[in-house]
Amino acid sequence: MKCSLGLISVDNVTMDEAVVHIVELSQKKDVARIVCTANLDHLATVQTDLLFRTIYKNADFVVADGMPLVWLSKFTTCRLKERVAGSDLLWELGRASQETGVKLFFLGGQPHAAEATVTAICHRYPNAHITGTYCPPFGTLDEPAELARIKDVLTKTAPDILLVGFGSPKQEKWIAEHKDLMKIPVSIGVGGSFDMAAGVVKRAPLWMQRTGFEWLFRFLQEPTRLWRRYFAKDMPFLIRMVGVILLDRLRTAAAPIPPRTKSP
């Protein structure tokens, strides 16, 4: 079942259900699939970015990465079960790799972050199957030589699931453009998950994650980079979104109930 949140439809699943479905998709070799981890910033971006909107429309699976999406769903007829954060999904796929043998590859992140993430995951799940990592040099993703290098390393390592940490919407656009060339069963954009798993960037305490204030913790770490995203873009959009949903509910509640027709 999907929950519609504006221009994005999110699959209504728990973390465990999401992991099971992603593993199932990775075993299907017929086409390359894309999984999106939706958050409030994505919801705001699709309003003006047609390509990003198209990627979401055509995505094979969409999970609710951000707590604001769970909150928004409470004002609709379809309430999301829980948040499925990309940073947690990374670890859960490591566990699934150990249990099922599904093969993972980590692409992107800050230099050496992906390698450190492998070490961290294998410390927790020693039998996880991580076939490799690669961090493209900054600013080279559009170069044919770099694209050929990435294709070569992915062909040699043959993962079932590719986790891409280029940041959004770059990672989703890159996956959508190149997934058929790379021929990986499932590709997922995971943003800064490698950096957090490696300890390059600190993740918010658990209570902030559960109460929806993880964004504030991230902002305090990188205020210069994130203030425009959170306060000039996402927060005003969230307020408008809540207003639209509430207004729509009021209109629905105020609509006259059609009279019952008597049966002959």
Please provide a written account of the structure.
This protein has helices spanning 15-26, 40-45, 50-58, 67-73, 86-100, 113-124, 144-157, 170-182, 193-197, 206-211, 214-221, 223-254, and strands at residues 2-5, 8-11, 33-38, 61-64, 103-108, 129-134, 161-165, 186-189. The protein is of the alpha/beta class and 264 residues long. The chain has one domain. Strands 4-3-8-7-5-6 form a 6-stranded parallel sheet, with helices on both faces. It has a two-stranded antiparallel ribbon with strand order 1-2. Helix 1 packs across helix 5 (86-100) and helix 11 (214-221) packs antiparallel against helix 12. It is globular and about 70 Å long. The model has no long low-confidence stretch (mean pLDDT 90).
Which percent bin holds the helix content? 40-55%
Class inferred from helices and paired strands: alpha/beta
Largest sheet: 6 strands, parallel
Number of strands: 8
**Can you tell me the overall shape?**
globular
Tell me, rounded to a whole number, the average pLDDT.
Answer: 90
The overall number of domains is 1
In angstroms, what is the radius of gyration? Answer: 20 Å
Indicate the low-confidence ranges by residue numbers.
none
Tell me the strand percentage band: 5-15%
Work out the helix count.
Answer: 12
List SSEs in N-to-C order. EEHEHHEHHEHEHEHEHHHH
User: End-to-end span in angstroms?
Assistant: 38 Å
Give the strand order, joined by hyphens, for the main sheet: 4-3-8-7-5-6
